[in-house]
């Protein structure tokens, strides 16, 4: 029997919607970011706790696999650390 995979999506448009994503501990997760605006520094997303720093293509989903074994709050931001969000694992 395979484990289910959690899917969470964030729209990037002058910030992050939603800014908080909640995931269940121990269940594999895919977190996708879709940038729909060319404005600002939101063309890069940084998730330091997961070792991720990636460019976000315009109008395309970029999917990351998130390790949910460690509970807590994990911050993410744009490349210039001006816009913020978080992944909460519980």
From TrEMBL:
<protein>
    <recommendedName>
        <fullName>EfeO-type cupredoxin-like domain-containing protein</fullName>
    </recommendedName>
</protein>
<feature type="domain" description="EfeO-type cupredoxin-like">
    <location>
        <begin position="10"/>
        <end position="89"/>
    </location>
</feature>
<dbReference type="InterPro" id="IPR008972">
    <property type="entry name" value="Cupredoxin"/>
</dbReference>
<dbReference type="InterPro" id="IPR028096">
    <property type="entry name" value="EfeO_Cupredoxin"/>
</dbReference>
<dbReference type="Pfam" id="PF13473">
    <property type="entry name" value="Cupredoxin_1"/>
</dbReference>
């Amino acid at each position: 029997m395979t484990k289910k995979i959690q899917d969470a999506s964030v729209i990037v448009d002058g910030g992050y919607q939603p800014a908080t994503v909640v995931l269940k501990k121990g269940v594999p997760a895919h977190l996708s970011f879709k940038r729909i605006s060319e404005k600002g520094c939101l063309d890069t997303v940084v998730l330091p706790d997961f070792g991720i720093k990636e460019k976000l293509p315009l109008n395309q989903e970029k999917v990351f696999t998130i390790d949910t074994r460690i509970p807590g709050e994990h911050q993410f931001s744009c490349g210039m650390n001006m816009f913020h969000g978080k992944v909460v694992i519980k």
